[in-house]
């Protein structure tokens, strides 16, 4: 049974692997046997790379600004000039909380490019590479609770994550018959660097209102994404495609 989750001999390309959920997923895939390619905004961030290499796996890093569509459009060609890979995990994302009526166009465009634009470009270029080389690959995108719920003061983020969910379905529809599976993971409220201010604010009203609504009674941790990511990247999920797994402690069931 455990062989179904074995990623030995596989290579995964991951964005957003410097910290938080992306870092945990990168390490989790390495623990399952995969070598890792990290696409980072700054390659001086070596913590994840060192952790992967400590497991005896290989790790390569490439620098790119995912907010720059032109830069993103060169990533796959640059990577595949040196490496082949069978797994793509799009984790990188940003959030900007601004009232909708005051949302600056430039900020809206930034959020859409990082969260949706880069995901589309990397999926498109990876899919083309895999189809050309007969590789039966697996893509794991990162959706959100905001793929289902609009939220407040997060119009751009919600729009981007709703689109990621539908992009996942659309790509699966086109590529499933050709051996490429496309799925997504939708995180709930997870304790990461991005929300440390919410969790440590002396006024705990907002934090408490969220926590009490989560059936498990707590926020998730990045490490809890290792299992879902390995599952979707491995043969264990061989007949699953076009789906979004919600990892939220039961939030969406309320």
Automatic annotation (TrEMBL):
GO molecular-function terms, A-Z = oxidoreductase activity, acting on the CH-OH group of donors, NAD or NADP as acceptor
Task: Give the top-rank taxon of the lineage listed in the UniProt record for this protein.
Answer: Eukaryota
Q: Which UniProt keywords apply?
A: NADP, Oxidoreductase
Similarity comment text for this entry: Belongs to the short-chain dehydrogenases/reductases (SDR) family.
* InterPro entries membership: NAD(P)-bd_dom_sf, Sc_DH/Rdtase_CS, SDR_fam
Organism the protein comes from: Capronia epimyces CBS 606.96
Protein name per UniProt:
2-deoxy-D-gluconate 3-dehydrogenase
Q: Which Pfam families match?
A: adh_short_C2 (PF13561)
């Amino acid at each position: 049974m455990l062989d179904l989750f074995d990623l030995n001999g596989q290579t995964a390309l991951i964005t957003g692997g410097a910290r938080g959920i992306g870092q945990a997923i990168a390490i989790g895939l390495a623990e399952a046997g995969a070598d890792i390619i990290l696409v980072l905004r700054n390659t001086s961030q070596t913590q994840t790379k060192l952790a992967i290499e400590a497991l005896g796996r290989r790790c390569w890093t490439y620098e790119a600004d995912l907010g720059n569509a032109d830069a993103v459009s060169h990533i796959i060609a640059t990577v595949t000039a040196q490496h082949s890979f069978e797994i793509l995990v799009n984790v990188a994302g940003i959030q900007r909380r601004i009232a909708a009526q005051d949302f600056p166009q430039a900020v809206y465009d930034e959020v859409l490019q990082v969260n949706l634009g880069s995901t589309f470009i990397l999926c498109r270029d990876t899919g083309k590479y895999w189809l050309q080389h007969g590789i039966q690959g697996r893509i794991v995108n990162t959706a959100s609770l905001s793929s289902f719920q609009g939220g407040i003061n997060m119009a751009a983020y919600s729009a981007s994550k709703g689109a990621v969910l539908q992009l996942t379905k659309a790509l699966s529809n086109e590529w499933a018959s050709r051996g490429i599976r496309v799925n997504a993971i939708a995180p709930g409220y997870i304790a990461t660097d991005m929300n440390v201010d919410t969790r440590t604010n002396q006024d705990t009203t907002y934090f408490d209102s969220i926590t009490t609504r989560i059936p498990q009674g707590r926020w998730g941790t990045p490490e809890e994404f290792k299992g879902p990511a390995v599952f979707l990247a491995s043969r264990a999920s061989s007949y699953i495609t076009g789906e979004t797994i919600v990892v939220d402690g039961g939030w969406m069931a309320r």
